[in-house]
Design brief:
The complex is a heterodimer of chains A (738) and B (116). Chain A is of the alpha+beta class and 738 residues long. Chain A has 21 helices and 24 strands. Among the domains of chain A are: 103 residues, Beta-Lactamase; 171 residues, Heat Shock Protein 90 (2-Layer Sandwich), CATH 3.30.565.10; 140 residues, 3-Layer(aba) Sandwich (Rossmann fold). In chain A, helix 2 runs antiparallel to helix 9 and helix 9 packs antiparallel against helix 10. Helix content of chain B is 78%, strand content 0%. The longest helix of chain B has 17 residues. Chain B is elongated and about 40 Å long. The chains are: A alpha+beta (738), B mainly alpha (116). The interface between A and B is medium-sized, with 20 and 23 residues.
């Protein structure tokens, strides 16, 4: 017992610990995976964001180079445009045919103004300048410009007015043979720098790019950054060097060196925390340089927002994957858990089964050993008293008893094991309930009478023929009845009631109730709960004195379960018990009903002795049964019946129909007399009582007197024929077998 | 045979014919015999002699015959008489004699009216 307990405890402990451990491990694993995902994601994101500055610088260099080249191209074509405008001004004046000095001056001014120039002048070969239109301008390197215009190497310069307005100034050499003072003079015309800037789209608002134009010495020709208050770009650079918050990756000297070499360079500056990418390159056709400055944020912001939106997308994607992963894991965990639970249940069941098995074995060994010991012991005693017939006979009686008990036990055990192993197959055969009940009743009545217990059978059958397993049904009834008889004291009563109600049952079956009621010793409430378990017997002295295996009720329960029925028990200690079995039995089709019944046609020619004192009743019976082919002989009372039967050849009569109330000798007395006759058919000839009384008491008396069955009065031919057919058929079968 | 006359006399003709396999001839013959049956007279004698044992015997016999012939009222009364006598209440059973007499008379009158 202690061992069993320990085992149970161990099973419980194992059961509770084992499923939790892998679950926890998996849960940790999932958490770890989540953390890893987060870390990898964060690392990738930050690396990507950090790398973007370097990448943007790289992108900027290429971008700026391209843009600078584009601006230079645009600048060159703009220059060409203005120069051709100036040329066409000269040609238009010449074509006008003006010859006078003043006429020519007006013509130049008018034509140039019409072509968008804001400043016009003539520089004479001796160096004097004559202003024709616009403000006086101080021209950059005036002499070098004039020389450049004359030899075609330098078509443009910058002029600054007294009030600070800057203009791009172009020159065109004049030829005039009529006015020698003009021949070889240079016509100059200027366009405000602002117009050029807007024509070239160099203003900051459009491109976000500052474009400066500087002279070779670094001074500004065009300063697009209004916040930049300096005359010289190089000077500004030089001033800024070493100042906190400003950091160029090129020095002013290095830049000046590049400008001396007329090279191009890309460099990056950080001013006040803002990054700027710059590109310097020489402007073709001039000795100037163009500097493009791109604030880092112009590229950085969209790239950054792109990067962040990529990050966000990645994050969302990551999250989605994580959620999906989590869902999968949760499902998997659940599956795992349910499987473990199932495993646990299976283990619990198998533990319970093995427990039951060991209890079975211990019970079995005890139950088998007890009668075996008796048999061995009695055999020993009988051997020692071989010369004393009385002692030997007593021993043999006890051996027979023990053997019978042992046989019962073995039968029950085998039956039970067949049921337990699932090998109980329920047949579905046509079963006549009245016949089954008759057979059960006969056996149970013998047991009941032997114990002095009154046995009452009540039946109300609306559907007597059903499809079920007749043998198993009988087994259920017999087990219940023999149990009831066994535990009912002398003078008690056992009632079998079978009733087919009109209550609806599924599939058109017929609900059949079986009650087995006894006035026996009853049982405790505690035992009622265990009664259908194997080897359970109540532990009281009365029960211990009663033979039994403790298997009967569990067999009953298994069979009823197998038939899809239910069984209930109610009991009160000292007042008896009631077992109530409910079965939904399959109805048998009409034709089948007839097949199940013995064929009354088989009675044709059967000889029946009818004991009936009333002539009219005899007339009815003889007419009706005679019409069915039976040969009837009439005995007017019991005595005559006995006489006629004794006078007949043995086997002459196939059956006797016996009225119970007759003058001279009643049916009971006549039956007893016939059964007591010394002739071969005295005990086997079927005797059927005919009674107008449906009292159980009369039926019982009839049975006690040795009658086989009874039929009701007024006579129902069909019933009489059925009963006779059954009894005569059984008797013939019995003879055939013998 | 006039069913309505027999029915009015207290005989369930359909029930009786059902039992006798539909043979009117047999029913007619049995009804004719019924007039010769002594059970009723024996019951009256028993009542007069105050003999419970004889009364039970006669009532029982009449019960059997009337049942076979579906004489509903006679069958009911004799059944009750048997039950009472068995229960030991002979005086109550004797009290049924008048009622039984009228039921018997109407059956008898109906049979005689049909000249069976």
């Amino acid at each position: 017992m202690t061992g069993e307990k320990n085992r149970e405890a161990a099973a419980r402990a194992a059961g509770s610990a084992s499923p939790a451990r892998p679950v926890r491990a998996i849960r940790l694993g999932v958490l770890g995976l989540l953390a890893l995902c987060a870390v990898v994601f964060a690392a990738v994101t930050f690396t990507a964001v950090g790398m973007s500055d370097v990448t943007i610088d790289g992108v900027s260099a290429g971008f700026m180079e391209q843009m600078s080249a584009q601006i230079r191209l645009n600048f060159a074509s703009e220059m060409r445009l203005y120069r051709s405008e100036l040329e066409s001004t000269r040609l238009a004046v010449r074509a006008s045919g003006a010859t006078g000095r003043d006429e020519l001056r007006d013509g130049f001014a008018r034509e140039a103004a019409a072509r968008g120039f804001a400043y016009v002048g003539v520089i004479y070969p001796e160096g004097r300048t004559s202003l024709l239109l616009g403000p006086e301008l101080a021209l950059d390197e005036r002499d070098a410009f004039v020389d450049g215009v004359v030899d075609g190497s330098r078509p443009v310069t910058v002029g600054t007015s007294a009030d600070g307005e800057s203009m791009l100034v172009f020159g065109e050499v004049l030829e005039n043979r009529r006015l020698p003072e003009l021949d070889g003079a240079v016509l100059v015309a200027g366009v405000p720098l602002g117009e050029v800037v807007s024509a070239l789209s160099l203003d900051v608002s459009a491109t976000q790019v500052y474009t400066h134009i500087i002279r070779p010495d670094g001074s500004f020709i065009l300063n697009s950054n209004k916040n930049l208050d300096a005359d010289s770009y190089l000077g500004m650079l030089r001033d800024n060097e070493g100042r906190p918050g400003v950091d160029y990756d090129i020095t002013a000297d290095e830049l000046a060196q590049v400008m001396d070499d007329r090279g191009s360079v890309f460099y990056v500056a950080v001013v006040g925390g803002e990054r700027y990418a710059s590109y310097l390159s020489p402007l073709e056709g001039t000795d100037w340089f163009i500097v493009s400055v791109l604030p880092h944020r112009v590229l950085h912001d969209p790239i950054d927002s792109l990067a962040w939106s990529l990050v966000a997308a990645a994050f969302v994607g990551c999250l989605a994957i994580l959620v999906a992963l989590l869902a999968v894991f949760v499902r998997y965990l659940r599956l795992l858990r349910s499987q473990m639970d199932e495993l646990d249940r299976a283990r619990a069941a198998s533990d319970a089964a093995s427990l039951a098995k060991s209890r079975f074995l211990s019970n079995m060994s005890h139950d088998i050993r007890t009668p075996m010991n008796a048999i061995v012991g009695m055999t020993q005693i009988a051997r020692e008293h071989a010369d004393d017939p009385a002692a030997v006979s007593g021993c043999l009686d006890k051996i027979a008893n023990s053997s019978a008990h042992l046989l019962n036990l073995i039968n029950d055990v085998l039956d039970m094991s067949r049921i337990e192993s699932g090998r109980m197959e329920l047949a579905s055969e046509r079963v006549s309930l009245p016949e089954t009940l008759d057979a059960v009743e006969a056996i149970a009545r013998t047991q009941a009478e032997a114990r002095g217990v009154t046995f009452v059978v009540e039946r109300e059958l609306s559907c007597p023929v059903v499809l079920t397993d007749g043998t198993r049904l009988s087994q259920v009834l017999l087990n219940l009845l023999s149990n009831a008889v066994k535990f009912t004291p002398r003078g008690g009563e056992v009632t079998l009631r079978v009733e087919q109600g009109a209550e609806p049952a599924p599939d058109g079956r017929v609900r059949t109730h079986v009650w087995v009621r006894d006035t026996g010793i009853g049982m405790s409430e505690e035992f009622m709960r265990r009664i259908f378990d194997s080897f359970e017997r109540e532990d009281t002295e009365r029960v211990r004195k009663t033979e039994g295996t403790g298997l009967g009720m569990s067999i009953v329960k298994r069979i009823v379960d197998g038939m899809g029925g239910s069984i209930q028990v109610s009991s009160e200690k000292g007042h008896g018990s009631t077992f109530h079995v409910t079965l939904d039995l399959e109805r048998c089709a009409g034709e089948a009903e007839r097949l199940a019944e013995p064929d009354p046609a088989s009675l044709a020619g059967a000889r029946v002795l009818l004991a009936e004192d009333n002539e009219l009743n005899w007339d009815v019976a003889s007419e009706l049964l005679g019409a069915c082919g039976l040969e009837l002989d009439w005995a007017e009372n019991g005595r005559e019946c006995v006489e006629r039967f004794s006078a007949s050849e043995p086997g002459h009569y196939d059956a006797i129909l016996m009225d119970l109330r007759m003058p001279e000798m009643t049916g009971y007395e006549a039956t007893r007399a016939i059964r007591a006759l010394d002739r071969p058919d005295a005990r086997s000839v079927p005797i059927v009582a005919m009674t107008a009384d449906a009292f159980e008491e009369d039926r019982q008396r009839a049975r006690e007197a040795g009658m086989d069955a009874h039929v009701a009065k007024p006579i129902d031919v069909a019933e009489v024929l059925r009963v006779l057919a059954r009894l005569v058929g059984e008797r013939d079968d019995g003879r055939g077998g013998a | 045979m006039r069913h309505e006359v027999l029915a009015a006399g207290g005989i369930d003709v359909d029930d009786a014919l059902g039992r006798l396999m539909g043979s009117e001839k047999l029913l007619a013959r049995l009804l004719g015999k019924f007039l010769d049956d002594t059970s009723y007279q024996r019951f009256l004698d028993a009542v007069a002699a105050d003999d419970a044992e004889a009364g039970l015997e006669a009532a029982h016999a009449l019960k059997g015959v009337s049942g076979n012939l579906s004489m509903v009222r006679v069958h009911e009364l004799t059944t009750r008489a048997c039950e009472l006598i068995r229960a030991g209440d002979w005086p109550a059973a004797r009290g049924l004699a008048d009622e039984l007499g009228s039921a018997y008379s109407s059956v008898k009158a109906a049979i005689e009216a049909c000249e069976l």
